[in-house]
Amino acid sequence: MRFVAGYYRISVEKGSQVEHQRTLVEEAVKQDPWLRQFPFVPFLDVGYSGGTTRRPALQRLMAAVASDEVAAVVVKDFSRLSRDHLFLEDCQKNLFPKTKTTLISLTEQYDSRSPEAEEWMLLQGLVHQWYGQDVAEKVRALRAKQVQAGIHWGRAPYGYRKEAGQMVIQEEEAAVVRQLFFWQSQGFTTGEMAQMLQQSGIQTPKREGVWTRNKVWRLLHAPCYDGTMVLGAWEKPVYFSRRQRKKQPQLWHQIERRYPPLAPAILPPEARTQGHPPHPFRGRIFCGGCGQPMVRRWGSYASFTCPRRSQGGPCPAGTLRQDRVAEAVRQVEERLYLAKYGETKAARRQRQEAYAATIQKTLEQEEEQFGWLFRVVYEGPEHFRILMKRNWNQWI
User: Fold this and answer.
1) Assessment of whether the complete model's pTM goes beyond 0.85
2) In this predicted model, what pLDDT tens digit does every residue of 290-324 receive, in sequence order?
3) From CA 5, how far away is CA 72, in angstroms rounded?
4) How far apart are CA 210 and CA 365, in angstroms?
5) Is 236 left (phi over 0), alpha (psi -120 to 50) or beta?
6) Angle, helices 171-185/213-220, rounded to nearest 10 degrees
């Protein structure tokens, strides 16, 4: 059985606007004898721009129209249905006539049953699209001025909070950020840091999901932790898009010393951007059962685990503690050193230190005996004449 659809849309959540649209549409349906003979079904989209058709209620409505289930679609005005004149034109010329669906807009007094409806709808679609683009350009201009003035919009970065328009440190989150920089200075990987944060029960910046190496990497490379505010790093490819793309770093607007820094006391910015040196065992420990590279894990102690075994696979290999692996490597290194030099590394180091001490003592004795000669060479003949007058008998 076919029905009459009332479609409502608001860009921001305001109940009064929804009720206003609902009242106008329902009253119009009640006053039209032809519309009253069909059941009435409302469709509502909240928080969606009219420039995009990716709206849940709108997509359900279009699917119902394509299935020939809708007798008429009633809206307050065309901008509620869409601000894209190409979409409106497609509905008017293709989809709605094919399924014999009537389109009614109350504000524009448009009814597709009227013979003059086609030209009027095309004009209104162009006007609404121009209006959406005009609003988007004004918003861009306003935000450009805010960027130049150093005004931050949106939520505060992780580790900060807004107070009277200024960024202040949120101590609980800032402690997590400082801990990440400390771990990085100690050579931990982003995966290991994410695992330790997850095991500690610390919430992610968005208070949902789990810690991943990408989330940790973004925190470690965020310019705000050096005290730099970055504005205008993202842009929309078209005004009605809900997606954003990142601009090139040279197009960002950066203001230094805008935030209280969290990172410089732990790790210099140049060290963070270049990354930390890899762990000496990374990529060098392989499973004896299946030959796969073992993964470094961190719990109460650092260890290496076969990825197949950790995923419930058939590999018989167990877990290797990192400290025991390091001790085994040290013992092998000592044996190889002994075979090559005929002595252990510790004995060779002691012998070299004893030889260096002997050389140092010899230099000190020679300097005490022949120091006057060095002073003559470096301080000139005048010093030599003074020494001759004072110490002639001593030299003889």
Assistant:
1) no
2) 777 787 776 667 788 877 765 566 676 677 888 88
3) 6
4) 68
5) beta
6) 100
